[in-house]
Design goal:
about 160 residues; single chain; mainly alpha
């Protein structure tokens, strides 16, 4: 076992569940970087067992699933992240629009854009940028510019 062989479990039993979740998440990221995807997946699952409210775990696990081409699992994890997040939906929305773009799931991509393009999400720059790129690639530059103008108008109203 990678964790035991590196001594990373040293005194882990003394940590809170939230702290354990963070430690396991970091270990999972390291494993992912070394392309030990199956081990990373198990570690991220353990991290979720320890702290099911930690948004970075959902993000990392979902990104791992995308890397493994486990797109349905990735979508589920990103949607779960949206459900539990209050103000941090932007990360998951961005990951979802990129996933739908990558897999050619235009129906879900359009539904996501329609549902989350509003005065609140206009501030999610990464989501809006990903939507713009998706629209440009799939529907053409005119639709992308139209979307960008809508976002700009929403931002003006929001910040004024």
């Amino acid at each position: 076992n990678f964790i035991q062989s590196t001594g990373l479990i040293y005194r882990l039993e003394e940590f809170t569940d939230s702290e354990k979740g963070k430690v396991y998440t970091e270990i999972g990221i390291i494993l992912k970087k070394f392309k030990k995807y199956e081990e990373a997946e198990k570690i991220f699952q353990t991290a979720l067992e320890k702290d099911s409210e930690a948004l970075p775990i959902y993000n990392e696990l979902g990104r791992l699933y995308v890397k493994q081409r486990k797109y349905e699992e990735a979508e589920k994890v990103f949607l779960d992240g949206i459900k539990i997040s209050n103000d941090s939906k932007g990360y998951f929305l961005t990951s979802l629009i990129k996933l739908y773009h990558k897999t050619g799931n235009h129906q879900k991509a359009n539904a996501l854009i329609n549902k989350y393009t509003n005065k609140t999400t206009a501030c999610y720059d990464s989501f809006c940028k990903a939507c713009y790129i998706y629209l440009k690639d799939v529907k053409g530059i005119k639709e992308a510019i139209k979307y960008k103008k809508i976002i700009q108008q929403m931002n003006k109203r929001f910040y004024v």
